[in-house]
Amino acid sequence: MAEHDFNQRLPKSEIVESGYLESMLDNFASSYKLFWFKGIFTEIQKGNTTLEYRRIVARMIAEAWYPVVFYHLSLGFSDKLADAIHYMQEELHIPREEKADRIVEFVCMTTDKKLLQMVKDFTNFVPYRLIRPFYQREIEFERKRDLTFRDSRINRIIEEHNQNDRNNALYVMNRIDGILTISPKWEQYLKTNAVVVEGWLNYKLIKYIQQRNPNVPAIPFKLFPPTSKDRNLSEATKFWKSIQTKMKLFDLYTDKEFTEENFEQFGSFSVDHFIPWSFVLHNEIWNLYPMFKNINSSKNSMLPDKERYLDKFCECQYQAFLKAKELQVSKKVMEQYLNVKRDIFSIGKSDIGHDVFLQAMKQTIEPLYQIANNQGYGIWWYE
């Protein structure tokens, strides 16, 4: 959908000038204004209208947590929000799949000096930058009057005019106490039109992140935590267990057969993605293969070493594909192989078919593998 369609769909209002929403999030080189507004929007929906700066920054971090930590998305070369998130995850050991409200409370309660400085750095300029469009006329007036005007004065101009502005601007700032108060009129507007505004805001965020991650698939689905339904592998497990009835299966990484004795040593039968799920965001059979559960836990969301495992993976997939055709596995499952090669079902048991299948698999996997590695997915092998 074109951007102007979203602008036209922002509801008009008799109590606020809704065009300011677009002006506030019109041009930005970093994610700060987007996530600052998203944090405020989330708090308003929870019924909070007097907000501490620190809590809003905590919301920024919570809203950006999964895109950055779980999905390895870039927020931009110079974006410091990702720095704060990586610091919390790597140095303060916040779990990769932590819940948003717990992240918020951690930031609000922390005594860590480095994190507190990061929070303060955001509050020095972001609160002013978001509401600048409300005071653009005053800023331009001062700029014309004073030929020595510097951008450092903009915050002071905004603060001067914002102090008694309880009807026009989105919020009134209290810099000394580090709080802001949402305008009752804007609170009403954002609550009444919450669904539309949230869709518009998410569109802005998707567009921003897509521009900085141009080759990454499924960006719109990487703004939020995954659900258990998203990662349900019951269909894949059924597929591989049916294959196991017709051929021996071996763990890709230990070379051990799936037997009761080996289950005791390495863990139960498990199915895993060759390219991590958090990158591809699908459970298609061609990217899945059985492995022992304990080994799976060790691999986590990393990329298997390509030199060690890719040829072996593709070979195992070829053998399983032939068996699945013999077993007449459900059309719904087998059609997933069409994303590897359009005419893949013409491939049979021959040297030529074998080579064509392996080549098609590698041509599908290798570009995804390289992009995922570039995005920060580490390389793993079994030791």
Keywords:
2 domains; 7 strands; mainly alpha; two-stranded antiparallel ribbon; 19 helices; 383 residues
Radius of gyration: 26 Å
**Mean pLDDT reading:** 92
Determine the strand fraction and express it as a percent band: 5-15%
> Low-confidence parts lasting 5 or more residues at pLDDT below 50?
1-8
In quaternary terms, these chains amount to single chain
- In terms of structural class, how would the helical and strand content be classed? mainly alpha
Determine the fraction of residues in helical runs and give it as a percent range. 40-55%
Q: How many domains make up the 3D coordinates? A: 2
Largest sheet: 3 strands, antiparallel
Order of helices and strands: HHHEHHHHHHHEEHHHHEHEHEHHHE
What does this structure look like?
The protein is mostly helical and 383 residues long. The chain folds into two domains: 3-222, no CATH class; 234-380, no CATH class. Helix content is 54%, strand content 7%. The chain has 19 helices and seven strands. It has helices at residues 3-9, 19-24, 32-45, 53-70, 81-90, 100-109, 113-123, 126-131, 136-145, 154-162, 184-192, 194-212, 234-244, 260-266, 277-280, 293-299, 306-327, 331-334, 351-374, and strands at residues 50-52, 171-174, 179-182, 269-273, 288-292, 303-304, 379-380. Strands 1-3-2 form a three-stranded antiparallel beta sheet. α4 (53-70) packs across α7 and α17 (306-327) packs across α19. The chain is elongated. The two termini are 48 Å apart. Residues 1-8 have low confidence and may be disordered.
